[in-house]
């Protein structure tokens, strides 16, 4: 008998007496579904860095020391632009303070003869002038905060880009609100003012990052600090030490200390909300 089929391999005429597949064959898929392709991994998340908790992300707990270290590292990467921006903020803040003191000098409660005197109109005028100066100063603070957030999102610090992203009306209203409330808190035996300053520290970050209203941002800051009070307090203490070190270096060190603290605060702001931070 003539056939074009190849001759059978030796042993092929033996029937398969078990249920195991023949050597080299692929067993049929179970459930009627094909096996998944090998090496088919999901694409990496957008943004160039993984979210917290992902492989390579921030699975480790938050650390105040890491926040300061992050601020120092990012300061070195953006030193020129950050020093320039901080210098502008420092000069403008000093000038605003000097102008407010000239327009409405701080009242003296003692006469030349050593007797006590209460100058109500002088106190009010001085508070108004200082509040206006502080409110304008918040624009510069907001610019630094927005630039620091840009750095945590993988961008370079750019003073022009950061300033261009600000909603000036919203920032001014926020500055006015914080200036008034902090001044009132300081007048109430100082301690309430210090507490307010601690819990309102992220207000300007919420305003420039999420476009919240001043009151919404203030509430968000209080909530964020309250939920992370221990880590926030430790971060604040380390930031205070950094600022004191800059102050001791004949004020010149503040040109580095202020950006480091601002970047550390931006890092804490993101990490406390479990948001991704550029490495």
State the main characteristics.
single chain; 279 residues; 10 helices; mainly alpha; 0% strand; globular
Number of helices: 10
The class by helix and strand makeup works out as mainly alpha
Total number of β-strand segments? 0
Q: Could you tell me the radius of gyration in angstroms?
A: 31 Å
> Regions with pLDDT < 50 over 5+ consecutive residues?
46-58
Question: Quick recap of the structure?
Answer:
By secondary structure, this protein is an all-alpha fold. Helix content is about 60%, strand content about 0%. The protein has helices at about 65-75, 80-105, 120-150, 160-165, 170-185, 190-200, 205-210, 215-225, 230-250, 255-270.
Topology:
Blueprint: H1 64-77, H2 79-103, H3 120-152, H4 159-164, H5 168-187, H6 191-199, H7 203-210, H8 214-227, H9 229-248, H10 254-272
Helix pairs in contact: 1-9, 1-10, 2-3, 2-10, 3-5, 3-7, 3-10, 5-6, 5-7, 7-8, 9-10
Structure description:
The chain starts with 63 loop residues before the first helix and ends in a 7-residue tail after the last helix. The longest helix has 33 residues, at 120-152. It contains 10 helices and no strands. It is globular and about 55 Å long. By secondary structure, the chain is mostly helical.
């Amino acid at each position: 008998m003539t056939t074009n089929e190849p001759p059978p391999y030796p042993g092929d005429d033996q029937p398969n007496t078990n249920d195991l597949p023949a050597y080299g064959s692929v067993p049929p898929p179970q459930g009627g579904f094909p096996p998944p392709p090998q090496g088919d991994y999901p694409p990496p998340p957008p943004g160039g860095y993984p979210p917290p908790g992902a492989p390579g992300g921030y699975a480790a707990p938050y650390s105040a020391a890491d926040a300061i270290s992050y601020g120092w590292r990012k300061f070195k990467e953006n030193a020129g632009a950050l020093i320039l921006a901080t210098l502008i903020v420092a000069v403008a803040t000093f000038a605003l303070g000097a102008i407010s003191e000239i327009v409405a000098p701080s009242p003296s409660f003692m006469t030349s003869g050593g007797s006590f005197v209460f100058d109500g109109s002088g106190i009010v005028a001085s508070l108004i002038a200082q509040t206006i100066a502080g409110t304008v100063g918040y624009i510069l603070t907001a610019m630094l905060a927005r630039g620091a957030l840009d750095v945590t999102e993988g961008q370079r610090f750019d003073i022009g880009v950061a300033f261009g992203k600000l909603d000036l009306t919203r920032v001014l209203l926020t500055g006015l609100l914080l200036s008034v409330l902090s001044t009132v808190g300081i007048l109430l035996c100082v301690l309430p003012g210090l507490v307010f300053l601690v819990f309102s520290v992220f207000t300007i970050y919420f305003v420039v990052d999420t476009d919240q209203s001043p009151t919404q941002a203030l509430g968000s800051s209080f909530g964020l600090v309250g939920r992370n009070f221990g880590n926030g307090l430790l971060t604040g203490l380390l930031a205070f030490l950094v600022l004191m070190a800059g102050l001791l270096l004949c004020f010149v060190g503040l040109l580095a200390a202020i950006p480091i603290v601002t970047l550390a605060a931006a890092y804490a702001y993101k990490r406390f909300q479990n948001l991704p931070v550029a490495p």
